[in-house]
Specification:
Layout lengths: L4 E4 L10 H17 L3 E7 L3 H7 L5 E6 L8 H16 L3 E5 L2 H14 L2 E12 L2 E8 L4 E5 L6 E5 L14 E5 L30 E5 L9 H11 L2 E4 L1 H5 L20 E5 L5 H7 L4 E6 L12 E4 L2 H16 L1
Parallel strand pairs: 1-2, 1-4, 2-3, 3-9, 4-8, 5-8, 10-11, 10-12, 12-13, 13-14
Antiparallel strand pairs: 5-6, 6-7
């Protein structure tokens, strides 16, 4: 297994495999095939069975480590320490993980304990001259850079929704193992879990998103956004300007400092399309914008732009959608 490419499998709060890990596994499978590397998944949790079994539908081999401490402690620090121990034991060459909160914590811990370098927030990963080549979006999405490691070991974090997850043709196997040693680094105890009342599915997983920007004018403007999202069977998103104004919660923010989404349809109401927002939704299948300004930045990359008052257009669209569903 020395010289292998490893994939960290992240868990959902319910104990299943996180969506971002299915995307990372898919990207890693392509890179490993090009590089001729063995590919191994690693799931470390109080009960890793379900997530490890799901990860094995994407990867040929998955190591499952039972670590009770993750049940009531933040996973990043603990999983990072256990991964570092496994890395010392088995000697893989590269570790791929998601660029979400847990992946960022974990990458920092593993880097500190192993001395490996980290390439962050990859939007694409290839293989060149014996090393991964990582494409990153920088300066608020204005530039793309290609980077690689100076050494023969390293960690890559991959942004959510830049890869379409695809299971392997043949499922792999799950192998229980352990990671020896004490947890010598400080850990963070979870003292309380809060769940947003009535929360819908995460917008990162939505196939249809209706987003509102500064143009909706206020919190009441999001009533129309929500009605359209309900009629389309989608989720509500927002720009940072709308969130900073207190019109909608941060959990719906899309963009550089919010969520990265990849819906089949992105309907933008009163969204200017500034670069900071664009980096969060530019990979949507179809982008439809409603804006009174025909020269708004979003007109440059939208598939269709409707020039007009978003409330007039939105209400007319709502009438048509309800008529069809009736």
């Amino acid at each position: 297994m020395r010289g292998a490419l490893w994939v960290h499998g992240e868990l959902t709060p319910e104990g299943g495999l996180a969506k971002i890990s299915t995307e990372v596994a898919t990207a890693a499978r392509t890179v490993a095939a090009e590089a001729g590397l063995d590919l191994v998944g690693v799931v470390i949790a109080a009960d890793p069975a379900a997530a490890a079994a799901e990860l094995a539908t994407y990867l040929p081999r998955v190591l499952a480590v039972t670590e009770p401490a993750t049940a009531d402690h933040a996973a990043g620090m603990i999983v990072g320490q256990r991964l570092a121990a496994l890395i010392e034991r088995d000697g893989p060459a590269f570790l791929f993980t998601g660029a979400g909160p847990e992946g960022r914590d974990l990458a920092g811990v593993v880097s500190a304990l192993t001395g490996w370098g980290v390439l962050w927030n990859a939007v694409a990963v290839g293989w060149t001259d014996g090393r991964p080549t990582v494409r990153m979006s920088v300066f608020g999405g204005k530039l793309l850079t290609d980077s690689t490691f100076t050494g023969e070991r390293g960690i890559v974090t991959i942004r959510p929704n830049v890869v379409s997850a695809e299971a392997a043709a043949t499922p792999g196997t799950v192998e229980p193992t352990d990671a020896a040693g004490e947890l010598s680094q400080p850990v963070v105890r979870i003292v309380e879990r809060l769940e947003e009342a009535g929360a819908a599915a995460p917008i990162e997983e939505a196939k249809i998103i209706v987003a509102g920007g500064r143009g909706v004018g206020g919190a009441e403007g999001f009533t129309l956004v929500q009605e359209l999202a309900d009629a389309l069977g989608g989720a509500v998103g927002a720009t940072r300007a709308a969130v900073d104004s207190g019109w909608i919660g941060y959990s719906q923010q899309i963009g550089q400092t919010g969520k990265i989404v990849k819906p089949q349809l992105y309907l933008a109401l009163g969204v200017s399309g500034a670069i900071q927002h664009k980096v969060g939704m530019q990979t949507a299948g179809t982008i439809v914008a409603v804006n009174r300004d025909p020269d708004a930045p979003i007109a440059e990359f939208a598939d269709l732009i409707i020039v007009g008052d978003l409330f007039e257009v939105g209400r007319a669209l709502l009438v048509e959608l309800r008529a069809r569903s009736g």
